[in-house]
Write a structure and sequence with these properties.
By secondary structure, the chain is an alpha/beta fold. The protein is about 40% helix and about 20% strand. Helix 9 links the parallel strand 10 and strand 11.
Length: about 290
């Protein structure tokens, strides 16, 4: 078990649900607030953002590349338009605290770790695209906070190297497929119980980018104690991640089922004759000679 904010995370605890806002706010703080409100109303435990230092993460050539977008004509216009700075994160921090929901982010470079640290985050998330960045992971590890790491685009050997570097203590490993959106036959959820057995001192969860909610329920039934899903106000909205996200109706449905999964569906791992069965037994069972 480990503690993130005021929540204890573990296999015997309710599933910890993270609503990934990422860049689905489209650079608009009001959209970000609507997504926070939606996550809170659905019963999510936390919302997550992404933080980049644009000039560090992207080369000058990449930023200068022509790319028509709502913010201009270059890729740099797009990346800067989507990036929140101190003013926006100050308001996100205030808004989440007043709403009673945790927030944290995936930093994509060391400067972004230092930027986020001022907000005393409950944990850090390492994105799949960053899980081979040794310097970034070292900076995150040095902060001494719980770490959640996604394993998209990563094979078994890569996972071993990442876990060896980070250590299993206070670590959540998220099985993940980095296709947006992923097809059902690409999910390979059977990795979840395997990873649970392989890394007994860490925790294992699931980060999904597929359409629909049922795969996340299957992941939780297989043992995932953290579920992360991208959320959106509308899958048809402009943006690269919108189509691989859950709208509010789907999010509410998912969280409702996740919260009742262990309490109602899975129950105890011991088979007894229920009180509700005893009357039926008397009525239907002709013999009890075994």
């Amino acid at each position: 078990m480990l503690k993130i904010g005021n929540r204890i995370i573990g296999y015997d605890q309710p599933v910890f649900v993270v609503a990934e806002i990422g860049i689905n706010h489209n650079g608009d703080l009001n959209i970000a607030k609507q997504l926070i409100d939606g996550a809170k109303a659905a019963g999510c435990d936390a919302v997550k953002f992404q933080k980049r230092t644009i000039e560090v993460v992207y080369t000058l050539e990449e930023l200068a590349r022509l790319r028509e977008n709502p913010f201009g004509s270059t890729n740099g216009d797009l990346k800067r338009g989507l990036e929140f700075g101190k003013k926006e994160y100050d308001e996100i921090d205030r808004y989440c605290k007043s709403s009673g929901i945790m927030w944290f982010a995936s930093p994509w470079d060391e400067q972004s770790v230092d930027f986020l640290e001022r907000y005393d985050p409950p944990c850090y998330k390492i994105a799949s695209a960053c899980n081979k960045d040794k310097e970034l992971m070292a900076r995150i590890k040095a902060m001494g906070r719980p770490i959640i790491v996604s394993m998209g685009m990563t094979d078994d050997l890569g996972i071993e190297c990442i876990v060896d570097f980070l250590g299993e203590k206070n670590l959540v490993i998220l099985h993940c497929v980095s296709t947006y959106p992923a097809k059902d036959n690409e999910l390979h959820l059977a990795n979840i119980p395997r990873l649970i057995g392989k890394y007994p001192n860490a925790l294992v969860g699931y980060s999904g980018h597929e359409v629909g909610v049922y795969s996340s329920l299957v992941a939780a039934a297989l043992g995932a104690c953290v579920i992360e899903r991208h959320i959106t106000l509308g899958r048809a909205m402009w943006g690269s991640d919108q189509a691989a996200s859950l709208e509010m109706i789907g999010l509410h449905k998912l969280v409702k089922e996740l919260k009742s999964l262990k309490r109602d569906y899975l129950g105890q791992s011991i088979k007894v004759v229920l009180d509700s069965e005893k009357q039926i037994e008397t009525k239907l069972r002709r013999k009890k000679t075994l």
